UniProtKB/TrEMBL annotation:
Lineage, top ranks: Bacteria, Deltaproteobacteria, Candidatus Acidulodesulfobacterales, Candidatus Acidulodesulfobacterium
Enzyme class name: transferase
InterPro entries per record: Aldolase_TIM, NadC, NadC/ModD, Nicotinate_pribotase-like_C, Quinolinate_PRibosylTase_N_sf, Quinolinate_PRibosylTrfase_C, Quinolinate_PRibosylTrfase_N
Protein name, as recorded: nicotinate-nucleotide diphosphorylase (carboxylating)
PANTHER family, A to Z: NICOTINATE-NUCLEOTIDE PYROPHOSPHORYLASE [CARBOXYLATING]
One of the record's GO cellular component terms: cytoplasm
Similarity remark: Belongs to the NadC/ModD family.
Pathway field: Cofactor biosynthesis; NAD(+) biosynthesis; nicotinate D-ribonucleotide from quinolinate: step 1/1
Gene name linked to the record: nadC
Biological process per Gene Ontology, one example term: NAD+ biosynthetic process
Gene Ontology MF terms: nicotinate-nucleotide diphosphorylase (carboxylating) activity
Length: 284
C-alpha cells in the first residue's frame, strides 16, 4: 500500500498548524537567528514495537526546515524493534527540530502503535487461513494513515469508505424490510458492477436468508463461538465469513480454530490502540 505526497502533506500541515500556529514561544526565547546552531539528535524506542511512519516523520522536517535537514534510519518500515533501540538520526537547526519534534513523534508513535497491535493480532493467527481486518472506526482525517499502519503490521484492510464496498448493516435491513429485500435492492441498484455484497447477520435465521439471497460475504456479528460454528456450517463455502464484535487478541485464535471463519474484524486496531513510545534527544 502506497501513500503519495499529496495525501500526506495536508495532514502534516494541519498537525503543524495545530501545534505551532503562532510559533514556539519557549524556543523563540531561548534561541535567536544568531544563536540557532545545527544539532544532531536521535530517536529511541522506549519499548518494543513494530515501526511505522518513518517517511511521515521525515516529511514533517522536510516542511519545517524547508528541506534543510539530513536523516538516517537505523531500521526499516514494519521492522520489529526492541526497547532502547535507536530508530533514526536527525540533523537540522535546533529551532527547527524543536518546532517539529512533537508533531513528528505523534505521527510515529500513533502509527507504530497501530502497526504493533496489527502485528500481534496477525501473529495470533499464524498458520491459519483466518485473516485480521480493520474497520472504519478510525480517527477523523487519519483513516488513510491508520489503515496503512494496519497493513504494515500484517493485517488486511476492510473497505476504506462508504463508496468502496457494500456492507448491508442492521439498519439497512430494517429500512429494506428484511435480509432478502435488502440484498435484492442492492443487486438491482448495482447490477453489472463488480461489488461484492456483504451483509451483517446477528442470528442463524438471518444467516440462512443471506445465503439464499446470494450474499458473497456474511458477517457474523456479536455471536458466540458455538453459534458462529453453526453459521459457518450453514454457509458451507457459499460465501466468505467474517466474525465481528468486541474482538480481543485473547479471543482470536480460539475463534479462528473453532469456527473456521475467513476473517475477523477488529475496531480496536484503530479506535483505541496504545501508541508506541519514542523519545527524541539532542546528541551533544
Amino acid at each position: 500500500m502506497q501513500i503519495l505526497d499529496f495525501q500526506i502533506k495536508p495532514l502534516i500541515y494541519n498537525a503543524l498548524n495545530e501545534d505551532i500556529k503562532w510559533g514556539d514561544i519557549t524556543t523563540d526565547a531561548v534561541l535567536s537567528e544568531k544563536n540557532n546552531p545545527v544539532m544532531n539528535c536521535e530517536v529511541i524506542a522506549k519499548r518494543a514495537c513494530t515501526v511505522c511512519g518513518l517517511n511521515i516523520f521525515s516529511k514533517v522536517f522536510e516542511i519545517v526546515t524547508k528541506n534543510d535537514y539530513a536523516i538516517d534510519f537505523y531500521c526499516s518500515e514494519g521492522e520489529k524493534i526492541d526497547a532502547m533501540q535507536k530508530v533514526l538520526h536527525l540533523k537540522a537547526k535546533a529551532g527547527d527540530i524543536l518546532y517539529g519534534e512533537r508533531t513528528a513523534l505523534n505521527f510515529l508513535q500513533h502509527l507504530s502503535g497501530i502497526a504493533t497491535a496489527s502485528s500481534i493480532a496477525s501473529g495470533e493467527l499464524r498458520g491459519l487461513k483466518t485473516k485480521i481486518l480493520d474497520t472504519r472506526k478510525t480517527i477523523p482525517g487519519l483513516r488513510l494513515l491508520q489503515k496503512y499502519a494496519v497493513k504494515i503490521g500484517g493485517g488486511e484492510n476492510h473497505r476504506f469508505d462508504l463508496s468502496s464496498g457494500i456492507l448491508i448493516k442492521d439498519n439497512h435491513i430494517k429500512l429494506a424490510g428484511g435480509v432478502k429485500e435488502a440484498i435484492g435492492a442492492v443487486k438491482k441498484k448495482y447490477s453489472g458492477f463488480n461489488f461484492k455484497i456483504e451483509i451483517e447477520t446477528s442470528c442463524l435465521a438471518e444467516v440462512r436468508e443471506a445465503v439464499t439471497a446470494g450474499a458473497e460475504i456474511i458477517m457474523l456479528d456479536n455471536m458466540k463461538i458455538d453459534t458462529m460454528k453453526k453459521a459457518v456450517k450453514i454457509i458451507n463455502n457459499a460465501a466468505l465469513t467474517e466474525a465481528s464484535g468486541n474482538m480481543t487478541v485473547e479471543k482470536l485464535r480460539d475463534i479462528a480454530v473453532k469456527t473456521g471463519v475467513d476473517y475477523i474484524s477488529m475496531g480496536s486496531l484503530t479506535n483505541s490502540v496504545m501508541p508506541a513510545d519514542f523519545s527524541l534527544n539532542f546528541v551533544l
